[in-house]
Here is the input.
Amino acid sequence: MKNMKEEWAQIALDLTSGLDSKDRFERLLSTIRNALKCDASALLLFKNQYFSPLATNGLDSDVIGRRFAISQHPRLEAIARAGDIVRFPSDSDLPDPYDGLIKNKKELLHVHSCIGLPLLINERLIGAVTIDAFDPDQFNSFTNKELRIISALAATSLNTALLMERLENQSSESSTSSSFETAQQNNVEMIGESKAMKELKANIKAVANTELSVLITGETGVGKELVASALHEQSSRANQSLVYLNCAALPESVAESELFGHVKGAFTGAISNRKGKFESADNGTLFLDEIGELSLALQAKLLRVLQYGDIQRIGDDNHIKVNTRIIAATNKTLSEEVKEGNFRADLYHRLSVFPIFVPPLRERENDITLLVGYFAEKSRVKLRASSIRITPEAIRVLNTYPWPGNIRELEHVISRAAVLSRAQSIDSDLTLSTWHFSIQKEAISDEPIHQVTEDTLLECPQGLRIATDEFQAKLIQQAYKENKQNWAATARALQVDTGNLHRLAKRLKLKE
Here is the structure.
């Protein structure tokens, strides 16, 4: 009991320290782990029926990027509904969201002992702390009273962080809510903790609640549309429409009508009056994606709207006043396009009142790991899998790849890998390893037997299932030979559960 009191005192001291929220949260979990001798713990924020990890201890690095819908995770739902300490029986058949995600464990191990501490402030749920262990009797000696003290201290720590952020927002005269909460509150979340992402979020926060036009630039696939959504949701126009228009997909013959509308009889096929995107976005925001693809003629008409605030439908002599904020995006360097005569200089200066650059994924330090977790959880839900784990080797490979297609490419790669793993697995616990990823050879050149390229898959006329079985059989045979016919060593080399490997080998007729 003395040690427990010392741990409580340490948590209480951390609450009054000058630590930032992230450090305070990590210290909190470290103290809990020392006190309860658990294998893993997590501090989760609760918002809009989702739990989002703010800090973890003992879990795989990608967990911090995952977002857990309580409708998809019965244990988390039980914690959210309980209002008090939840002890799950060691033989509970409810799947644990962290099964297979304990750090430094090569085999797919299942959590046996689990406790949920709901974090309540004035009877309102703001988060939870989850505590897990492999020993089914690990937490039997701790009373609910002791656990409630930890829960109360953790709730105070989280609430203090939320209040501090609200005060910071108020002092900077921002009407946006806490960054912990804004993402889920408005359904716009940008995953990342790198310096580049912090700068991006700061720029969004600075300009969002103004009426300035914004020009979003960046490579293909970096998430410019997500930035536009964040700008709208954090603005005073958030309750009005955000209207999207892809300028690159507009045929010249209909582009003007799409932007400004037309009246009945204005041209062949105009059988009724029709609003354009500007009118649809009146009092809201118009997002013009791929703005660099607009013709010079349309650029001139767009400039007039920005200058005078009115539009003219095709075939109509009347002018219609609109109050529309413009957010534009492009993967081109518009200043160069201006020099080459492809883009109007006056329109460029009107649009780029506040330019925002979205960094490419290769410049975002460890954000790839968080995004891998985020997309893995999305894939798990879509495939109705119990769990999806990414091996440390695969995480390393994904972090060393240059990602020319950025976040869009990463999402597709994770989705494809999950589908391949699902096709290969005999149960719903999926593990994504290096050979599931069809990315450039230079990223995985040190692991030649694990390479599966897109070209390889396209050369399989016998179908995916047969090709997958053949590939697995060859890979297992090679690993079995290299590990001196030892199945346990083979399982470790392939980063799979030994039991699963035995069952798979039997199905592939590699053993009796």
In short: Residues 2-169 form a domain with the Beta-Lactamase fold (CATH 3.30.450.40). Confidence is low (pLDDT under 50) at residues 171-185, 440-461. The two ends are 54 Å apart (CA to CA). DSSP finds 19 helices and 15 strands in the chain.
